[in-house]
Amino acid sequence: WLPGRGRRIDLAHTGIAGGHLLERIRLFFIILLGETVLTTGAAFTDEPFELERLLALAIGFTGTVALWWCYFQRAEGIGVEVAETAEDAGAVAWWGTWTLTLIVLALIGIAVGDELAIAHPGDDATLGFTILTFGGPALFLLAQVFFTREAFGQVPRSRPLGLAALAILAVATAPLTLIVGIAASPAAAAIVAADD
Questions:
Q1: Engineered SS bond to 74: which of 25, 63, 103, 196, CB 3.0-4.6 Å?
Q2: 137 half-sphere exposure, CB direction, 13 A CA radius
Q3: DSSP β-bridge partners for residue 124
Q4: Residues 118 and 60: beta-carbon distance below 8 Å
Q5: Which sign, positive or negative, has the C-alpha torsion 92, 63, 61, 196?
Q6: CA distance 94 to 150
Q7: Percent of the chain with pLDDT over 70
Q8: Burial code of 142-171, b = ≥16 C-beta within 10 A, e = fewer?
Q9: Degrees to nearest 5, angle at CA 44 with 142 and 56
């Protein structure tokens, strides 16, 4: 099949092992979380030691753990269940791939926001920082909303509530410092994970 030529791809009859695909997505996600930890660690070692920077590093790491918890506590289990029981494994693969793409973008934004806050924790928040710090986790939760809605037919209530909390916290912390921003964002993710 080529784009614009021949017949369209019929995902319903594509031979895809859903469990195998989700295992690959799981591995990519773990690698991405590892890259986030490495980015925050490098940001910490690139600047002179300060207690406020150490606190920002701890907060950034906590945020990464909260994202891991959000993914593995509920969303990943739903994905595995759907992939193993779906008649249309191709559609599950399609949505899993798009979910992973959104998660990659989300984790890049989160890592850059954490890196900025670790390097300059006392600086005033900028619009770009706020978009990265709150938009990254929001995109992460939005990816889970799309996947669970398509694969499972319903969305866990924690995800829309988490999105609303991120929007409120983004506005509330915009006039404050970078360290406050990266402290508020993981708090919302941790609450979503705890609700799961």
A1: 196
A2: 39
A3: 177
A4: yes
A5: negative
A6: 10
A7: 82
A8: bbbbbbbebbeeeebebbeebbebbeebbe
A9: 55
| Helix/strand/coil for 15 | coil
| Alpha carbon distance 143, 76 (integer Å) | 12
Cβ(110)–Cβ(132) below 8 Å: yes
Distance of CA 95 to CAs 101, 109, 144, 192, Å?
10, 21, 10, 22
HSE at residue 84, side-chain half, CA atoms within 13 A, is: 8
- From CA 141, how far away is CA 135, in angstroms rounded? 10
Check: pTM over 0.70? Answer yes or no. Answer: yes
pLDDT of residue 155: 83
User: Residue 22: what residue type?
Assistant: L
Cα 30 from Cα 28, distance rounded (Å) = 5
Whether residue 67 contacts residue 189, with contact meaning beta carbons closer than 8 Å, is answered with: yes
Backbone angles phi, psi at 5, to 5 degrees: -130, 150
The confidence band for 144, taking pLDDT boundaries of 50, 70 and 90, is confident
Residues 80-109: what's their mean pLDDT? 77
